[in-house]
Design goal:
By secondary structure, this protein is an alpha/beta fold. The chain has one domain (about 20-220): Rossmann fold (3-Layer(aba) Sandwich), CATH 3.40.50. The chain has helices at about 20-35, 45-55, 85-90, 95-105, 110-120, 135-145, 150-155, 180-185, 205, 210-220, and strands at about 40-45, 60-70, 165-170, 190-195. Helix 8 links the parallel strand 3 (about 165-170) and strand 4. Helix 1 (about 20-35) crosses helix 2.
């Protein structure tokens, strides 16, 4: 498995792209630089938008596609995050409690899963990526907003994604609502869908064992 930081993010230099399309082009260049001719691709949140764009631009590059917490370009109601989400994670400083409120449900199980996820994320104390700065976060939010401008014609683009696709989300995601997962799965010809219970935007961190098994099964 290969994970990578976008330009200007974490351990990568350069300027952060402010469009999904440029981020996809950068990602295609990365795959070429690594020397891979075909990949299975998993994108989460903004990464799922990038993954769609890669699959549309270079269909032969992607064998199978996993879209986690995703929405198609131009979906109605996707233009920007909801005010409560902006208030929690759309500011220069975000607290652990605010992160938990968006990525995990308020149930006892959800909050416990969130605390465990935070523990895993900060378990490493050395050789960590640089913290994402505000300019990068603004650039990525510009990309998200442009992707979410209502455009009925843009929805038809994903019909051209012909490889098998696994669409997944939590049933209570406040950032990218589950209805967009149903929309995606309905538009993509070879899509299968799973909605994980009592889970928000961080469903794949909460249900990590089940999600990993589901993805492995799908790729096999």
């Amino acid at each position: 498995m290969i994970t990578y930081d976008y330009a200007g993010v974490g351990g990568s230099g350069g300027a952060t792209a402010d469009t999904i399309e440029q981020t996809a082009r950068d990602s295609i260049a990365f795959v070429a630089a690594v020397g891979l001719g075909q990949v299975d691709l998993l994108g989460f949140s903004i990464g799922s938008f990038v993954a769609q764009e890669i699959a549309l631009r270079r269909p032969a590059l992607v064998r199978r596609l996993v879209l986690a917490s995703s929405a198609p370009k131009g979906a109605p109601g996707m233009h920007g995050w909801a005010p409560d989400v902006i208030g929690a994670v759309g500011t220069p400083q975000t607290s652990p409690a605010e992160y938990l409120s968006v990525f995990f449900t308020s149930s006892e199980a959800g909050q416990q899963a969130g605390k465990e996820a935070l523990g895993r994320m900060y378990a490493r104390t050395s050789a960590r990526d640089e913290t994402t700065d505000w300019a990068t976060r603004e650039a990525q939010y510009d990309a998200v907003c442009a992707w979410g401008i209502p455009d009925h014609a843009a929805l038809e683009r994903v019909i051209a994604i012909e490889m098998p696709v696994f669409v997944a989300n939590g049933d209570s995601d406040p950032m990218i609502l589950p209805r967009y997962s149903y929309l995606l799965a309905g538009l993509i010809p070879q899509a299968r869908l799973k909605i994980y219970p009592d889970a928000a935007h961080g469903f794949l961190f909460q249900h990590h064992a089940d999600f990993a098994a589901d993805v492995t099964g799908f790729l096999d």
